[in-house]
Amino acid sequence: MTVSTATIAPTPTTNLSSAEISKALDAKDNTFTYYYFKLHTHGATARALLAYAEADWTEVHPSDWFNVEKPLLKFGTLPVLYEHSRDGKVVVEHAEAMGLEIRLARKFGLLGANAFEETQILGFFSNTRA
């Protein structure tokens, strides 16, 4: 993991079909850029998942949040996780803590072995967020 400060977020890929993007997301060697403040709060779970999976990731702290970064983001909130294909041709923005945490858990095989287990895990996860 690398930590840095930046003012501009990566530009998500928009010129591909959802099937093409989904195929890129299935790759095992994707890299990640995680944007969040220097706080634990909503950022802790995603950091733990990335570390647990020994993912190739960089953490970036905003340097001019209100003036520069906030208007560039899908929902104008952090955390945001960018998932990059290894060749750099696909960049996907995962927004909102719960959504990106579920994405990481699914990618790293942590949502159980079947639909029942996934539902149980997500129910527990949802209850802990309330």
Describe the structure.
Helices cover 39% and strands 21% of the residues. With 130 residues, the chain is of the alpha/beta class. Helix 2 (44-52) packs parallel to helix 4 (97-107). The chain starts with a strand and ends with a helix.
The CATH architecture can be given as: 3-Layer(aba) Sandwich
State the total count of DSSP E strands: 5
Q: Any idea of the CATH class?
A: Alpha Beta
Sheet bearing the most strands, described? Answer: 5 strands, mixed
Shape annotation: globular
Low-confidence stretches: none
Helix content: 25-40%
What's the CATH topology label?
Glutaredoxin
Distance from first to last alpha carbon: 30 Å
Helix count, DSSP H or I runs of 4 or more residues: 5
Taking Cα atoms only, what radius of gyration do you get, to the nearest Å? 15 Å
Structural domain tally: 1
List the helices and strands and how they pair.
Layout: E1 2-6, H1 18-25, E2 31-35, H2 44-52, E3 56-62, H3 65-72, E4 80-84, E5 91-95, H4 97-107, H5 115-129
Parallel strand pairs: 1-3, 2-3
Antiparallel strand pairs: 2-4, 4-5
Q: Main traits of this protein?
A:
5 strands, Glutaredoxin, Glutathione_S-Trfase_N, alpha/beta, 5 helices
Structure in a nutshell:
With about 130 residues, the protein is of the alpha/beta class. Helices cover about 40% and strands about 20% of the residues.
